[in-house]
Amino acid sequence: WLLHIPHRPADLLRAIPGQANLVSFHRGLADRWDETTSHPVSLMIAGALGVEAEDWADLRSAPSTRRLIDLLGRDELAIARLPGAGFQRGDIWVLTSWLGGRSQLFGWFNGMFGLSGLESQERIGHWPVWTWSARPSSPPVTIALVEGMLIATSARHPQAVEMILNAYDGNFPSIASREDLTPWRQRILASSFPDRIWLKTPARSAP
Questions:
Q1: For residues 9 and 2, is the Cβ–Cβ distance under 8 A?
Q2: What are phi and psi of 201, to 5 degrees?
Q3: Is 64 helix (H, G, I), strand (E, B) or coil?
Q4: How many CB atoms are located within 10 Å of the residue 203 CB?
Q5: 119-124 and 92-98 strand pairing
Q6: Is the pLDDT confidence value at 207 over 50?
Q7: I want to staple 129 with a disulfide (CB 3.0 to 4.6 A). Which of 86, 121, 165, 175 is the partner?
Q8: Each residue's pLDDT tens digit, 110-149
Q9: Are 112 and 64 in contact (CB under 8 A)?
Q10: Residue 105's pLDDT is what?
């Protein structure tokens, strides 16, 4: 049994706080996973996140990773970086994935995908929250389930997910509420290109 949830990919940007300096938007990544993750740019991004080349090769080809990507990357997803976000504990990375009615599957997430260490946490507002750590040296990943979407954050500050959910709920400025990004939002939502990136630099913002 699956609920029908109207397709609203623009909602992915509601969960990205307005101070993000890097936002990428992708369609159908699951179908292009091997091609995309073998590209040198993907390896460079993985390295920036502290993932060694050998570890990245193992991670992207692991059966559990492929099952996750099949769930999270079948439709639209967005990835964003927040520079420190005022916490002075390093960058915050945010992933938002449109699941639609498949969001119910996350209720069985741990059993389906075998993620050891996935722990349920106290709800934030109306939303259920889990935490997961790949390894002790890595920042924990906090996962929240909202209407039709999965939100994941990687940050060393435990309050980061609260800021993300406040942005989604409209209590904190988000990329979706920034008037200067209205043209970019319109382009990515109407574009036939599967991948779009917006990068803010000190001198200018380049869509």
A1: no
A2: -115, 165
A3: helix
A4: 6
A5: unpaired
A6: no
A7: 121
A8: 544 555 667 778 888 888 888 876 666 667 788 888 888 8
A9: no
A10: 61
Q: Are 17 and 163 in contact (CB under 8 A)?
A: yes
Within its chain, how far is the Cα of 78 from the centroid?
A: 6
> pLDDT tens digits for 67-95?
777 777 788 999 888 887 555 567 888 99
Copy the structure tokens of residue 130: 């889990």
- State pLDDT tens for residues 166-188: 999 999 899 999 888 888 888 88
> Rounded to an integer, what is the distance from CA 135 to the centroid of its chain?
19
Q: Smallest Cα–Cα separation from 151: which of 198, 110, 97, 193?
A: 97
DSSP letter assigned to residue 53 = H
Q: Which tokens hold the place of 168?
A: 């989604």
Q: Reply yes or no on whether the pLDDT at 39 is more than 70.
A: yes
- pTM here is 0.80
**Tokens read off for 4:** 């029908």
Task: Please give the Cα distance from 113 to 100 (Å, whole number).
Answer: 19
Amino acid at 100: G
What crossing angle do the helices spanning 53-61 and 63-72 adopt, rounded to 10°?
Answer: 70
